Amino acid sequence: MQYQVTVRFGGRARRYHSFSVTAPDAATALREAANEIPPEMAEAVDLVELRIAVDPEHRTYLGDETAT
In the chain, how long is the greatest CA-to-CA distance? Predict the structure, then answer.
C-alpha cells in the first residue's frame, strides 16, 4: 500500500517535508518513513503525519456522478 508522509520540522519557523513510502501496513510504513527522514532534519522534527496515499485514478470529486 502507498502511504503519504508529512514531516513538520524547524521549531518556530516550521517547515514541512512530504514524501511517500510503500509498505504492507501502517507500522511498517512508519519505520520506512523514519529511514527516509534526512539526517539534518531529524533533530528538528516535532510531528509526523501518515496517510494512505490518494490514487488519482480513483479519486472522486464533488459533483462527479460517474466516479465509483
Answer: 47
